[in-house]
Amino acid sequence: MLPIGLVIRLVQIIKGKKYDGPNRAAAWVCNNIVPWYTRLAGCDYEIIGSENIPNEPALFVGNHQGVLDVVLILFALGGPKVIMAKKEAKNVPIAHLWMTLLRCIFIDRKNMRNALKCIEEAEDQLSHGQSVLIFPEGTRSRGPEMNPFKHGAFKAAIKTGAKIVPFVIDGTYKIFEEHKRLIKSKVKFSILKPVVALEGETSAQLSQRVQNLIAEELVRLRNE
Question: What is the pLDDT of residue 161?
Answer without folding.
Answer: 95
